[in-house]
Amino acid sequence: MSDRRPFLYDLHVELGAKIVPFGGWEMPLQYQTGTVVEHLACRRDAVVFDVSHLGTVRCDGTEMFDALQNTLTNDLKKVAPGRAQYTHLLTDDGFVVDDIIVWWVSENEFDVMPNASNTSGVTSVLPGRDVTHERCVLAVQGPNARAKVAAVDPRFAEVGRFRVDRFDFEGVEVRVAGTGYTGEAGLEIAAPNEVAEQIFRSLVAADVTPAGLGARDTLRLEAALPLYGHELTLSSTTLEAGLGWVLGWQKETFKGRAAVERERERGVARLLKGVATPGRQPLRDGGEVFVDGVHAGLLTSGNFSPVLEHGIGMGLLTPELEEGTDVTVMLRGREIAAKVTALPFVRKDASGG
Fold it and tell me: From CA 140, how far away is CA 210, in angstroms rounded?
């Protein structure tokens, strides 16, 4: 079965995108400007990503709050309708099936947003309808994101950080959340297909730079945001990723709770940490990390940081490793000198969303 194409595929080709397979989809990797330019545009101005490959499972009905509360890790009682929440779906053994954003749209209606390849995994454990094919999701990110979104619709720009709202736009309902995956302020706009191209073109006309998955990955890495399939997998845990705050210990249950309780009691054997090189050599996932010749773990992600202008990586490493520790990364037969460093690599004020 061939990869799916996003609804705006032809528009991306028109804009000069390089298309690559990702999570079962054919998605833009970069446009003619290239990944580094798109990355820096997000850090300094505003970009728009088509992230329609992400899933949307619409859960509506009076039973949905309890279904989500008893399955996903985070505690929905911390938020309320009109808010978004980051959460995990675990196996019974405590490993990560997916990391998810839940948009709590109204009292009995939720949009559950899994990663591209995991939508069926969510629908298998939650009662909901897959509406991925009905809409596009446009992520507008950067310090000037809201100002430029206001040129398309000023109401969109008023949606606050981790808030959710919906609006009538050209006769259809558009849903907007103050969420993103770059470490920058911004919004994600879930637009029905019939108005998605209009919104994307309007954003480009407002001088928002189209950006592809290449920049999305380097941005999230600088911000130390985990990626499913790398930091979060069916063989890694929420606690290993340093994300214990998404575990709702105060609620009665969630899938995998007993296993995670046991892990919390014994302590993690590895922990997500940052590693940086002094030079431009990019790090890559799979790199083996050594301290004084002793194996200390594996890199789960790595790349070149366009902001810092040196190599950076994240890995599940020995928990006792302290910041500043000298390490050696073995990557494709080459030894690379590096140091353990604080996360995130680039700290931004994303208070605007």
Answer: 9
C-alpha to C-alpha distance for 8 and 27, rounded to whole angstroms:
10
- With beta carbons less than 8 A apart as the criterion, state whether 275 and 314 touch: yes
Q: Which fold has domain 269-341?
A: Elongation Factor Tu (Ef-tu); domain 3 (2.40.30)
DSSP E strand stretches across the chain? 18-22, 25-30, 47-50, 57-60, 83-90, 96-106, 109-113, 129-130, 135-141, 164-169, 172-177, 186-192, 209-210, 271-276, 288-291, 294-305, 310-317, 326-331, 334-341
The pTM score is: 0.96
CA–CA distance, 194 with 59 (Å, rounded to integer): 22
Give every CB contact of residue 256 below 8 A, 6+ residues apart in sequence: 73, 90, 91, 92, 93, 94, 95
pLDDT string in tens for the chain (353-residue length): 468 999 999 999 999 999 999 989 999 999 999 999 999 999 999 999 999 999 999 999 999 999 999 999 999 999 999 999 999 999 999 999 999 999 999 999 999 999 988 888 888 999 899 999 999 999 999 999 999 999 999 999 999 999 999 999 999 999 999 999 999 999 999 999 999 999 999 999 999 999 999 999 999 999 999 999 999 999 999 999 999 999 999 999 999 999 999 999 999 999 999 999 999 999 999 999 999 999 999 999 999 999 999 999 999 999 999 999 999 999 999 999 999 999 999 987 554 43
Rounded to 5°, angle at Cα 173 from 168 and 174:
95
Residue 268: CA count within 13 A, CB half-sphere: 20
Cβ proximity of 340 and 333 under 8 Å: no
Query: The CATH number of 9-50+132-222 is which of 3.30.1360.120, 3.40.190.150, 3.40.50.2300, 3.30.230.10?
Result: 3.30.1360.120
CATH no., domain 57-118: 3.30.70.1400
Find out whether 226 and 241 touch, Cβ atoms under 8 Å.
Answer: yes
